[in-house]
What we know:
CATH architecture of the largest domain: 3-Layer(aba) Sandwich
Distance between the termini: 29 Å
Radius of gyration: 20 Å
Bound molecules: phosphoric acid mono(formamide)ester
Strand order of the largest sheet: 7-6-5-8-9
Order of helices and strands: HEHEHEHEHHEHEEHEHHEHH
Amino acid sequence: xxxxxxxxxxxxxxxxxxxxxxxxxxxxxxxxxxxxxxxxxxxxxxxxxxxxxxxxxxxxxxxxxxxxxxxxxxxxxxxxxxxxxxxxxxxxxxxxxxxxxxxxxxxxxxxxxxxxxxxxxxxxxxxxxxxxxxxxxxxxxxxxxxxxxxxxxxxxxxxxxxxxxxxxxxxxxxxxxxxxxxxxxxxxxxxxxxxxxxxxxxxxxxxxxxxxxxxxxxxxxxxxxxxxxxxxxxxxxxxxxxxxxxxxxxxxxxxxxxxxxxxxxxxxxxxxxxxxxxxxxxxxxxxxxxxxxxxxxxxxxxxxxxxxxxxxx
Length: 313
Ligand code: CP
């Protein structure tokens, strides 16, 4: 996300508008990527990102291949570099990569000549399309279009939870800051990064109750247990007591505030089950918008014609 400024972020959101409209059609399919082939290479678990990218590519008429690392020649000792070069030689136009190690998509991008590489989440590092779909959802909640976009200037965004291990936090903080929002981080000291130098945040604290009344957006993060975050808090119960968005805390939000969570949610830990069902909680909107955002990203990287027209070249 650090490579994108306000103009580029805004462009992705505007292009996604067209694909939200496509998604509402009885036949939500356009020929924009006909003849193109994309492959998803997921080396780490995923439900929404993989399905969302695959749905996005299929809605644009691309051919989609789902690489299964567990049954690939990686098992015979082939390196990731040789695997990627093989995939490119087959003629794949884009690889969408999720990996538990930070930097893998950037490294893969150095190994390929023609293939567009998309980061679907790398370690603690980045999850750019998640940040873009979050921003899209906020813009939509505030009326959409340019008026919704204008609301980001000075918007009070509170990011809560396991910031230390969160690629979503790293991407969304940059994205919100690019559009002029003021980001406050709230987490136990153990779940903050060792240094926040260079992070574009307005403030950092440990008292969620104190910041909720002024929040326009509350973005909750899951405890990243697969990255050991359970050992950074005394117990889940204590974590929820300090940092969970309970019904009591949700009642402190102003009526227009938006609650976001990238998913998967762990009900009863970072968000109470009943709070996840409130109209203010836009969690399923985030998932729906993710398809349009990923269509926009694929279109901007691979598409050459009008959104619902034929290829130019
Ligand atoms: N938000 C997100 O990345 O979810 P998945 O791990 O299910 O893809």
